[in-house]
Amino acid sequence: MKNDLDLLDLLKKAKSLQKNAYAPYSLFRVAALVTLKNNKEILGVNIENAAYAVSICAERVALSQVFAQGYTKEDIVSLFLITDSKTIGSPCGLCRQFMIETMPETCPVYISSKNDNNDPKIIRKVLVKNLLPLAFKPNSLKGN
Ligand SMILES: [Zn+2]
Question: How far is the centre of ligand 1, averaged over its atoms, from the C-alpha of 40 (Å)?
Fold first, then answer.
């Protein structure tokens, strides 16, 4: 298990991964990198579509891959997210709902944005459980 995440290494990898984003409409490239307990890294980028609603965010691409490759949320150590934004990037509401069920709630999410020189920098660490207060969870379906 990775005890000490090399955030600078993750930042470099995520920045490199951004070029794979398919964002011809927004030009807002996002990359997500999920680290697992076995040190494997699962990658995701945003994929847009001319029918905008069909587009998918980098976070959900990466987290879907975690499950497609046979892992579960218990295997996840962290999610590293990078955007083209100069202000704080943040997962959208849809991704926050997705993350609350597919990641450990105490899992850290590292969010990087760019400075005035367009260089990425790490500016925030947030826990999954703090991304979506009052989240709708599986036991919410039970209605009691
Ligand atoms: Zn999203």
Answer: 23
Q: Strand (E) positions, the chain?
A: 31-36, 41-45, 76-82, 108-114, 120-127
From 41, 48, 59, 74, active-site residue: 59
pLDDT digits (tens, 9 = 90+) for 13-40: 999 999 999 999 999 999 999 999 999 9
Going edge to edge, which strands form the sheet with 120-127? 41-45, 31-36, 76-82, 108-114, 120-127
Q: Please, what are the domains in the chain?
A: 7-142 (3.40.140.10)
Q: How far is the CA of 33 from the centre of ligand 1 (A)?
A: 14
Taking the centre of ligand 1 as the mean of its atom positions, its distance from the CA of residue 46, in whole angstroms, is 8
Indicate if 59 belongs to the active site: yes
Beta strands in 7-65 (DSSP E): 31-36, 41-45
Q: Please give the structure tokens belonging to residue 112.
A: 């990087």
> Which tokens go with 140?
């919410």
